[in-house]
Amino acid sequence: MNRFYYIARVRIKRKEDQGKEYFGRGVADLLHGVDEFHSLNLAAQHMGMAYSKAWRIVKQAEEALGLQLLFRMRKNGSRLTAEGRTMLEAYEEAEQAAWEAADAVMEKYFGGGADGKDPGNTAPA
Fold it and tell me: Tag placement on the chain: N or C end, fewer CB within 10 Å?
């Protein structure tokens, strides 16, 4: 067990995008919630977030990616688009690979690998 705690993060946006918005862990968590609850509003509530903030985060991510992530069905909730599902799967795989790479490097230099503790609950499931 090494003595360090670390966070591996992946942020995705188009190369030509000069803005500061991107697809990251927060957007991924919202999309998981939409997938579970079929509603951005319920996903936001589950995360303790205002619907207006969740809507803004998703809209900014869509603009940063140039993809539509959600199909909004007004009163019938929301669903992930095919592109949204693909981006979510790619993001999760990339973040898992980043965690594994960070673990390998820390083990190489400090031994023992990660201690399995994640006090910030930031490691991918």
Answer: C
Interval 67-78: pLDDT, tens: 999 999 888 899
Full DSSP string of 18-38: -SS--B-HHHHHHHHHHHHHS
pLDDT of 103: 87
To the nearest whole number, what is the mean pLDDT of the chain? 88
- Residue 68: phi and psi, rounded to 5, are -90, 120
The rounded distance, in Å, linking the Cα atoms of 79 and 58 is 12
Domain residue ranges in the chain: 25-109
Closest CA to 34 of 53, 50, 47, 52: 47
Which pair of tokens denotes residue 7? 């966070």
